[in-house]
Design brief:
By secondary structure, the chain is α+β, with helices and mostly antiparallel strands. The protein contains four helices and six strands; from the N terminus they run βββαβαααββ.
């Protein structure tokens, strides 16, 4: 029997743009990758990242929101700086949910993934940008998370400055 394996790539994001606190966000060209594989035992590998290597890992927690990770190996790589305001937690949540969805062929609608991710994260802005890409406007409308994606002009560039303190 061949073990199933999936690779998910999710962008970083910047949120709270202008007056759009918890509403406006944009995906960035920095990525988190999560590879999941059925190996018969649980493990987490995240070389060079200061993240938990157990079930408290946010990618694993999001994965387990949908399915148990008892026999799954997680390999995590990331260009997204942690705790720098670039949606590293949103990217981890979306990656974990998408990894479970794809590995187990759950065929979730994007709206369902967005709803789960928002419930885990607490607000929709960064998770919507990580899930949909581009520039997003998101909100909770009648107890349902809605997000609209807009393409970003190709010549628009983002400049990031992350201070040491």
């Amino acid at each position: 029997m061949t073990a199933r394996r999936r690779l998910v790539r999710v962008p970083a994001s910047s949120a709270n743009l202008g007056p759009g606190y918890d509403v406006l966000a944009a995906a960035l060209s920095l990525y988190l990758e999560v590879e999941v594989e059925e190996t018969g035992s649980f493990s987490v590998e995240a070389k060079g990242l200061d993240v938990p290597l157990d079930r408290s890992n946010l990618c694993v927690r999001a994965f387990e929101w949908l399915r148990p990770a008892d026999e799954i190996a997680f390999r995590i790589r990331s260009e997204v700086p942690l705790a720098a305001g670039l949606g590293s937690s949103a990217a981890a949540i979306v990656a974990g949910l998408l990894a479970a969805d794809h590995l187990y062929e759950l065929a979730l609608e994007l709206s369902d993934v967005l709803s789960h991710a928002t419930e885990i994260e607490g607000h929709p802005d960064n998770v919507a940008a990580a899930l949909l890409g581009g520039f997003v406007v998101s909100a909770n409308i009648d107890h349902r998370i809605e997000a609209i994606r807009f393409d970003v002009p190709r010549d628009l560039r983002t400049v990031l400055f992350i201070p040491d303190v």
